[in-house]
Amino acid sequence: MNSPVYQTVIVGGGFTGLFTALHLAHEHYPRSVILIDKNERFCFKPLLYEYFDGEMDSVQVVPRYSELLKGSGVIFVQDAVQSIDLHQQEVKLASGNSYNYSNLVLALGSVTGYHHVEGANVNAFPFWTQADAIALDKHLRDCLQKAIQTQDIEQRRKLLTVVVVGGGASGVEMAATLADLLPHWYSALGGNSSEIRVIILNHGQEILNGDINDPLRPIAEKELQQRSIAIEILTGAEATAVHPNAIEYKSNDEIKTLPTSTTIWTAGTSIHPLIQELPIPKEHRDHHNRPLVTPTMQLLDFPEVFAGGDCAAVQDSSLPPTAQVAYQQGANIARNLKALALGEDLKPVKVNIRGTLLKLGLNDAAANLFNIFEVAGEPAHLIRQGTYLTLLPTPIHDFKATTEWLDEEIFHHHLDPQDVGKKVVQAVEVVGAGVLGVLAARKLLKMLGDDDKKD
User: Fold this and answer.
1) CA distances to 185, 319, 407 from 28, in Å
2) Which of 103-107, 220-224, 309-313, 420-424 has the lowest mean pLDDT?
3) Rounded to whole angstroms, how far apart are CA atoms 115 and 309?
4) What is the C-alpha separation between 270 and 337, in angstroms, rounded?
5) For the chain, how many structural domains are there in total?
6) Nearest-CA neighbor of 21 among 74, 100, 90?
7) Both 11 and 86 in a single domain?
8) How far apart are CA 402 and CA 406, in angstroms?
9) Does the pLDDT value for residue 284 go beyond 70?
10) Which residues have CB under 8 Å from 127's CB, separation 6+?
11) Closest CA to 257 of 182, 116, 158, 170
12) 20 to 30 Å CA-CA from 28: which of 146, 174, 351, 377?
């Protein structure tokens, strides 16, 4: 008879998985913890746009798991999960290795959903990972380089047209970033930046419709028109096919073709194939086919299995698929795992939605804070980045990234001491991050002192 295996396996190193692991380490969890992810690096997805446009570097946005988990006692396994056997309590990996578990945490997130649109999975660029950001960067730079060298007006127009499919938060943030970034890149090559076109192709009649950022729509619509180039928004336009040099869409029952060398896909997600394959009956899944979990984040049919983030739905609850939700669920799953190990009662997970943050171009954003007040422009940009930096995975990484951001973003870009003071006060008051406040105060006092000496 085999002796029981007392170890917790976490499948997926996104927000839910990584923060579950880190909180277990912090809580001195009495069982071994194994975190499995196919990637070498964690991707802080809300800041992937900053990595893409060069505002932040890889250390800040895509740190290695080995660095984040150093000294935690958590075992990191870089491998792809091949199958999950809930009955045998076993996770099998592509390498041929397998792990048995006493408890399992499903944190696989979701995958890009192409909704059976012809050619979309081949010809459109997704934007989920560091590799996606690098591939898109290379492609766009190649297009601009070709455009500057061609005399063919139609070919140049195609090379300089970017279509973003989807008018949700991801599509809006991508379009806004490109509308500031591409003109800058093209002008540096000697091109006419007014030739750049950035288009949002939106199935619905309004951008951000049904999204948690819906209250920020008026601000977003205004800011999208104030980028380096105005963004074109095609509403009521359903993508039907993506080709290498064009996208087809349906509008008013008519199929239209838009020539473009770049289609970026942000039009929704689909359930992860491994979650799809789990032996969970239809009645225990939601309308997106995600497994239902109890308020304590356990599967209905397999209470030893916890699930959170995009790959699960809490019974009788509706939560947006955002980083702040996944972060809080990870912390609560960790607390319940420890309670289970110690024979204590599990507690329902409570998630507090603290507001929404929307990137609207370089040094620009909109923020809806606690559904009480809204901020736009550069103050919102400072709030957004400062807030996300306080959520970075470990205190050491948080401190390092925040220090670098403060030094570059606030103090190098805003040299007027009085102006700096106003911006720091705004950021510190709203973000409320201790490290941000201490660093800002020290830097501000030093700058003011230096200014006094000059006088």
Assistant:
1) 49, 29, 35
2) 420-424
3) 21
4) 28
5) 3
6) 74
7) yes
8) 6
9) yes
10) 48, 52, 133, 136, 170, 174, 264, 265, 266
11) 158
12) 351
Are residues 337 and 364 both part of a single domain? no
Site of tokens 């030093």: 446
449 pLDDT higher than 90: no
Q: What's the pLDDT at 57?
A: 86
**Three-state secondary-structure class, residue 103:** strand
Query: What tokens does 173 get?
Result: 């943030």
Within a domain: 71: no
- Distance, in Å, from the CA atom of 236 to the CA atom of 327, rounded to the nearest integer, reads 34
Q: In this structure, is residue 60 part of a structural domain?
A: no
Residues 174, 214, single domain; the answer is: yes
- Is the pLDDT at 451 greater than 80? The verdict is no
Task: Examine the domain organization and report whether 125 and 263 are in the same domain.
Answer: yes
- Boundary residue ending a domain (233, 267, 301): 267
CA-to-CA distance for 212 and 353, rounded, in angstroms?
Answer: 10
- Which of the two residues, 300 and 379, has the higher pLDDT score? 300
Q: Are residues 108 and 11 in the same domain?
A: yes
- Considering the domain architecture, whether residues 211 and 326 belong to the same structural domain is answered as no
pLDDT at 412: 46
Is 62 domain-assigned? no
Cβ count within 10 A of residue 227: 22
Shared domain for 278 and 327, answered yes or no, is yes
At 400-437, the pLDDT tens digits run: 554 454 455 444 444 344 444 444 444 444 443 333 33
Cβ-contact 208, 167 below 8 angstroms: yes
Q: Provide the token pair at 320.
A: 């947006």
Residue 216: give its domain's CATH number: 3.50.50.100
DSSP code per residue over 40-89: SB---GGGHHHHHHTSS-HHHHS-BHHHHTTTS-PEEEE--EEEEETTTT
- Percent of the chain as helix, strand, coil, to the nearest 5: 40, 20, 35
User: How many residues are there in the chain?
Assistant: 455
Tens of pLDDT, residue by residue over 10-54, are 999 999 999 999 999 988 999 999 999 999 999 999 999 999 998
Query: In this structure, is residue 97 part of a structural domain?
Result: yes
For residues 90 and 131, state if they share a domain: no
- Asked if 193 contacts 155 with a C-beta cutoff of 8 angstroms, the reply is no
For 201-222, the pLDDT digits (tens) are 999 999 999 888 888 999 999 9
Q: Are 175 and 164 in contact (CB under 8 A)?
A: yes
Pairwise CA distance, residues 51 & 47, whole Å: 7
Domain of 85, in residue numbers: 7-38+79-112+270-341
